[in-house]
Structures are given as structure tokens and as C-alpha cells.
């Protein structure tokens, strides 16, 4: 826990007045309310019900408490999906829980736009707390919901400004209809305009940002997955005076405390796996309230944290409807399958995604990845629960025209997410995440003994070496097409097909029609040397044994 203290003047007869304010923050809840993993049907230390217990404990300890969220709230679980797409008559379940818990404000996250503006606006109207984003500009005079830049709250006689920001990458990742009427400004540029204005009205300035720290807090190295201006809270702290505390998210990392240029930064873990807390002590001086000290930490959600009964009761009807939906049988599998090796070899799960994308997108080649590496499908009956776990995001299908040379560039980029062989002895192996796409419709070898940019060997199409000038129709998703995962070679390519349905729904439709999961992959790509593949699989399985978290 980091402490920043200012030298205090001597106040006669105890005349100095002090106010203690506790700031609590969640982020990237992604529709997690119940402490459960809907895909594995197992208990999990996550969700608003457990966060609620920590919040109530803090309120029992302190008088002046603000509860904040840094966005990506209404999307991300089957529960969130069901009530955004299948049953829209109910109040948004995550908002129901947040209202009951008494949130004071929320930053708008990019995933709030996934289901389109009608779903976003409905949830915003249902919330009893403001949704904030100072860098969202309204481009239509009417017909869109206004999003406030900040609010001022009086807490114990102290004026607290709460200012929201959103990562400006929404137009990269969403179809235009999902953000029509809005523009997204660079966070630092917007902050330079808004922070001074809010500072004049406030004694304490708190930012809630749906944007991550752009570099490693220990080494200072820029993260490899950083896109231009996507994560900007470090620059925000360095370049914009007047901020006291920043709660942030988006990157699904956790940071208990970091001081940059006198600004205190803290990030809770995603999915309600921890709660961020900042304690600020203010002292009243002749010129007004001044921050005397500030410190931050994160409080983990563990087995010892009980789920809050009130939140569970409110969410129970939503949970039961979701469970019934997920338990719908739609297919069979002749053998048990798991996703633990799906990022390191050609795998039946990813082949199924490829098959669906090529079928619906009328494509020659497909690009896809395994998002959820903990997925398991048993032999016998397969339910919608398992198939939904194949594709946990609301991505839509794009088919683009590209050349053989461009496809090679894409595959070389995917290969960069893998570590070079030989791996360091005794060290932690860097495993590729969900940005490591594979391809179907071509055959190739990924050689990890070669330097990045030269790892794709024997790239063949229809049994022959793929020529650079060969024209291909390639299926991908809207996130990749927009450059997500730094797939810049896909940006701006001619689009020949866009699906109006999410890829998950296409998979469900296809599997329901065929009634079977094929248990074998066609083996069109592989990693060499074999020892590298085996080491990756070994490391992945060891991590899965101790991982109750994410994909």
C-alpha cells in the first residue's frame, strides 16, 4: 500500500478540520453478478454479489464512501447476453444489482456498445447513477442519449468531481450503427479541456477511466498489445494537472497502487475478482480543502468472501432464466474434448469456428482463435452452455478480400505472440493469448526457432505454394478487421460480406442443424519443433490447474 503525505501545519487547540473519504471501484464487471462460471457451471470467486459484501464492510467502517465503476458492465456473460438479446423486457440485471448497491457513477466502456444503442440507452436510463465519458462527443442534435462528462458530489462537506473517460477505440471495434451519433476524442486532449473546468468547482478530482495503463508499472516497458491511444491513464497522469486519483480498467489487469506525477492510480481485477479502494484524507486550510494523504490497494474476492444475500435474491430470477437457456441440448459429441491445447495446435473447437465462418461468409480461408481456454465438452449430450463457451464475445462475421502476401503477413503477426524456442530454462513461458489467430483453408507450419516475421513456412493453398498475388476471400471478425490485436494488415481491406448476427449465434445455428460436434481436426497447421509445442501445452495445463479466472 502506497502512502503520499504532505507536511501539516501546526493547528492551535485542534482547530484543523479533517475529512476522510473512501473511494471504492469496480471495473470490467462484464455482467458477472453470481459467483459462478457459466461455461463450466462451477463456482468462481467473482461477481457483484461478492463485491457487494466488501462494499458493505467498507461502508460499515467509514462514513464518507463513494462507489464507482470504470465500465464494460452490461456485456460479457451468458446472463448479460440473454437479457440483451433474448428477453429485453426486463430491467438490465447488472444495473438492477448496481442500483441496489448504490453506485455513485460509472464510466462508459467500449463493450457497452456491443449490443447496439437501444440496449445501451435502455440500461443507461434504468441506472440510478450517471454514466460518464468526457471524451464522447454527441454529433447529432437529437435522437441520441446525452452522456455527461462529469458530476460534482458533496461528500462530508468536500466537493468531489468524478470525471469519466472511455477508450477512443470504439469505432475500430464496432459497426457504425452501434455508435451512430457519437464521436470519441483522444482521452488526454479531452482531459486538458475538462479537468481544469472541473478542478475549479471541486476540492477533490477523481477520474474513472475505461482505459488501461499503457506500460508495465514495474519495468516501464510499453505493453505489446497497446494500440494507439487505447490505453492512456499514464499519459493522463503525466500530462494533465489537477487530478488526484484515477480508477481505471479496460486492460483486465490489476494494480493495487501506483503514483505517477503525484496522481494515485488503482485498478481492480476484471469480472468482480477484486475491489479497488483509495482512502483520501483532506485538511481544511485557509485556501480550502487540500489533500493531506492518499493511499490505495485492492481487496481480493476469495472463498472467504460470502455473496451478499440481497444481491443474490434480486439476481436469482435472471440467473435461473439464464441457466435454463444454457441447459438446452443442441448436439452430441462422440468423445470428451477440452480447449487446453487449442491455441497451440489445430483443434476441433477452432476448426468448428472456422467451418462456420467459411460457410456463412462464403470464404476460402478463415481466421479465428480460441477465446476461452478452459472450455470442456463431455462425451454425449452437448448443451448450448458448451457451444456458447466456444465464442464468448459479441463479434460479428466479416469476409474480406486479400492477397496471399497479406495473408502471410497476418499469420506472421499471429506467430509473434508465441515465444522463441528454446524457451528460457526455469522461467515462466510466455503463452499466447486470444490474439494468436490460426487459419483454415490453407496449410502451414509455424517454426518458433525462427525470428519474428520469418516463422511461417510451407504456406500452401489447395495443395500448392500460396502465391503472393493469389486473391482470397478471408473470413474474420469485426474486432480483427478493425485492427484489434494489432492485426493492422486487415484494416481497410474490401469487405464482401458482413453478418447481421453474432458469430456465436451462427455457431449455435450450425451445430443445432448438424446435431453433432466433430471430434477431430484436419491438422492443417502445426508448431515446430515438437519440443516447443509440448512445452507450451505443458505450461498451459499447469496454469489451468491453478486458474479459476478468465480465458
Task: Describe this entry's structure for a reader.
Helix content is 27%, strand content 29%. With 551 residues, it is of the alpha/beta class. It has 2 domains: 18-319, Purple Acid Phosphatase, chain A, domain 2 (4-Layer Sandwich); 328-545, Alpha-Beta Complex (5'-nucleotidase,  domain 2), CATH 3.90.780. The strands form 8 sheets. Strands 1-17-16-2-5-6-7 form a 7-stranded mixed β-sheet, with helices on one face. A 6-stranded mixed β-sheet has the order 9-10-12-13-15-14. The radius of gyration is 24 Å and the shape is globular.
The domain tally reads: 2
Rg, nearest Å: 24 Å
CATH topology of the largest domain: Purple Acid Phosphatase, chain A, domain 2
Q: What is the number of helical segments per DSSP (H or I, 4+ residues)?
A: 14
For the largest sheet, list the strands in their spatial order: 1-17-16-2-5-6-7
Low-confidence stretches: 1-16
Q: Per CATH, which architecture of the largest domain?
A: 4-Layer Sandwich
Largest sheet: 7 strands, mixed
* CATH class annotation of the largest domain: Alpha Beta
Give the overall pLDDT as a whole number: 93
What is the assigned CATH homologous superfamily of the largest domain? Answer: Metallo-dependent phosphatases
Number of strands: 31
Structural class: alpha/beta
Strand content: 25-35%
